[in-house]
Design brief:
single chain, about 325 residues, TIM Barrel, 2 domains, three-stranded mixed β-sheet
């Protein structure tokens, strides 16, 4: 069985045209925004050298900011080094993340030249009021237009969205997920909003202008969007920021270390409770993939307790088998 992973290299947002209210790349990456290109190249080489022979298939992934917004010479030098390691067999391709308003035909031709294969777009929301309040510096139409260019030029398109931004609602988040599917996404990431110190969002939270989501609220809302991606066949790459992204500097918001697993558990409980209906006085037997048993039995049994509340079943039994993920088979026993 082939092993695959991304080889992430974080590029602080020196080229970003503005600073969103939630963004603090210095806090996230632990580094100042600008770095000498020669130092950066040596760090990239060092990371890639350490990964030689570790995996059958790897992608070099430039994350941490808007890659196509950084200074062009810096971008091409980083891509050139990455290409050396594609030639030597360390990696099979390159993925980048960037802003919707920093994609055009010319930049896509450059990315294609350097063998970039996957482009993740920071859509965040397709509600213009959310984008404006978050000071994103672009509108929803920019995301639709950029996604169209990306897919038409043969790149694998991934959409990134956020949960719990200023002015955002459950309805606008669900619509954003649906819009990312419509844009032709093959992949997606969902980031419940965490509030870093030193950001405008932190100040907004401190003065009462913004209310961060609790973990429970974020889990419930994220699960609704994640389910849209799963059901549409869009690969969900990640829920929450990467573990290396200094979350200790984010004291507010949905900063639970296992929020991804909590979301998956919530998807199961939502699906099961919808299928089961009212099971008052009955026994509910649930057959799920044996790989997913922990999603219902883990985290101090929270998922099971929620299921008992939702279904009103007297007893719940979980059986692991070879069922597909998120396709539970139910048996209800009793009068």
């Amino acid at each position: 069985m082939k092993t695959h992973r991304n080889l992430p290299f974080f590029v602080p947002h020196a080229g970003c045209p503005n600073c969103c209210v939630f963004c603090s790349q210095v806090k996230i990456t632990g580094e100042r925004a600008e770095k000498d290109i020669n130092v950066e190249i040596e760090e990239l080489r060092s990371m890639l050298e350490s990964e030689k022979g570790e995996f059958d298939e790897s992608q070099i992934a430039f994350f941490g900011g808007s890659f196509t917004a950084i200074e062009r010479n810096r971008m091409e030098k980083l891509l050139s080094v990455a290409n050396e390691y594609i030639d030597s067999g360390v990696a099979s391709g390159i993925r980048i993340s960037t802003r919707p308003d920093k994609i055009d035909e010319e930049i896509l031709s450059v990315l294609k030249k350097y063998r970039v294969t996957h482009i993740e777009l920071g859509v965040q929301s397709t509600d213009d009021s959310v984008l404006i309040k978050s000071e994103r510096g672009h509108l929803a139409k920019d995301s639709f237009e950029s996604a169209k260019l990306i897919t038409e030029n043969g790149f694998v398109f991934g959409g990134q969205m956020m949960i719990g931004l200023p002015n955002s609602t459950v309805e606008s988040e669900i619509q954003t997920a649906r819009d990312i599917v419509k844009m032709g996404a093959s992949e997606a990431r969902i980031y419940p909003t965490v509030v870093f110190e030193g950001t405008k969002l932190y100040d907004m939270a401190m003065n009462g202008e913004y209310k961060p989501l609790s973990t429970e609220e974020a889990v419930a809302r994220t699960a609704k969007c994640a389910r849209i991606f799963y059901e549409a066949g869009v690969k969900l790459l990640r829920i929450s920021l990467h573990s290396s992204e200094n979350l200790k500097n984010a004291p507010l918001g949905a900063n639970h270390p296992a929020i991804g697993e909590l979301v998956k558990s919530r998807i199961y409980t939502d699906i099961i409770s919808e299928k089961a209906g009212d099971c008052t006085g009955k026994k509910l037997i649930i057959r799920i993939s044996k790989k997913d048993i922990s999603m219902l039995s883990g985290h101090n049994g929270q998922a099971l307790e929620l299921l008992k509340t939702k279904t009103k079943a007297d007893e719940i039994k979980i059986i692991g088998d070879d069922s597909p993920r998120f396709e539970p088979i139910l048996e209800i026993q009793g009068d």
